Amino acid sequence: MVNKGEEDRIRDKHVLSDDERSRRTQIVRRSWAKQVSRYDKSMGFIERKLLGPEHRQWAAGKAEGDTLEVAIGTGLNITHYTADTRLSGIDLSPEMLDLARARGRELNRQIDLRVGDAHELPYPDRSFDAVVCTYSLCNIPDHGLALSEMKRVLRSGGKLILVDHVRSSFAPLFWFQRFIEFFTLRLQGETQTRRPLEQVVNAGFEITERDRMHAGVVERLVAVNQGAPVSDPTATRDHS
Ligand SMILES: C[S@@+](CC[C@H](N)C(=O)[O-])C[C@H]1O[C@@H](n2cnc3c(N)ncnc32)[C@H](O)[C@@H]1O
Q1: The whole model's pTM is what?
Q2: Whose CA is closest to 138, among 79, 201, 70?
Q3: Tens digits of per-residue pLDDT, 143-168?
Q4: Ligand 1 atom 8: the closest Cα is on which residue?
Q5: Residues 95-138: pLDDT tens digits?
Q6: What is the Cα Rg of the chain in Å?
Q7: Between the CA of residue 233 and those of 16, 102, 236, what are the distances in Å?
Q8: Is the distance from CB of 192 to CB of 199 less than 8 angstroms?
Q9: Given the CA of residue 29, which atom of ligand 1 is nearest to it?
């Protein structure tokens, strides 16, 4: 198990400054512009061998009504939404979104796709019945801030649906993740040891479903927006 001191150290790191957030955002944007052509293939491989391919259907199948997918990437989830879901998607990377647009056209889906930043969602308060985010809170520089934005755009009673790879509770695996993170954070802005559950709870959501699987590396959550605003968004941030 990861010991309590280490858990606290991870949780108590300082809030990202605006400069640091925009520096990391640039790294992320550049990294996806380079990786875009390989993404679907490499992600497919990682899902088959490690994370499990079933989580996309699980996540998209829980969404109903006006739905926003944050950091939609190349749109790998689009095929799994039911036909009556009114889907919007946002991503930082125009290159990733081009593939999502092509996928939407192939599947004959009407989707409002926009280039935008999860730290500052370009939608009015209470616009959506569901917000979905898969494998992206590990990559969004300030995921606590992104979660407070997700809460803002959700209607009261709306659902937050998350799938991500998180830090393992199995110590050798956790330290391996820390080692890899040293490189992935610097090169791609990709973290390996976050656990969004903590920020989701801090943001005042009520967790209604939670599964942790694959040696604790994958966590799936459904949480309901209780309606109260996030009084202090910094309370939901950590600094990995
Ligand atoms: C690992 S990919 C996941 C893509 C997709 N959600 C999936 O499940 O395949 C991470 C995505 O997060 C996006 N991203 C990272 N930071 C972001 C931000 N601040 N705002 C919007 N999208 C962001 C990246 O551009 C990239 O498309």
Answers
A1: 0.90
A2: 70
A3: 999 999 999 999 999 999 999 999 99
A4: 134
A5: 999 999 999 999 999 999 999 999 999 999 999 999 999 999 99
A6: 17
A7: 12, 35, 5
A8: no
A9: 25
Q: Give dist(CA 11, CA 143) in Å, integer.
A: 13
As to burial, measured by CB atoms within 10 angstroms (0-12 exposed, 13-18 middle, 19+ buried), residue 49 is exposed
Exposure string (b/e) for 97-124, b if CB count within 10 Å is 16 or more?
bebbbebbeeeeeebebeebbbbebebe
What is the distance between the alpha carbons of residues 120 and 54, in angstroms, rounded to a whole number?
Answer: 30
| CA separation for the pair 131, 35 (Å, rounded) | 25
The answer to whether the beta carbons of residues 200 and 161 sit under 8 Å apart is no
Query: Would you give the end-to-end CA distance of the chain in angstroms?
Result: 19
Pairwise CA distance, residues 172 & 33, whole Å = 33
Domain boundaries, the chain: 4-236
For residue 57 the two structure tokens come to 């259907």
Q: How many angstroms separate the CA atoms of 192 and 165, rounded? A: 7
Residue with the two structure tokens 């990391």:
24
**β-pair type (128-134, 111-115):** unpaired
Phi, psi at 99, each rounded to 5°: -70, -35
Q: Which atom of ligand 1 is nearest to the CA of 56?
A: 8
Phi, psi of 160 (to 5 degrees): -100, 125
Q: Locate tokens 């992935």: which residue? A: 184
Residues flanking ligand 1, CB < 6 Å: 25, 28, 32, 43, 71-73, 76, 90-93, 96, 117-119, 134-136, 139-140
Average pLDDT over residues 160-184: 95
Domain 4-236 sits in CATH at: 3.40.50.150
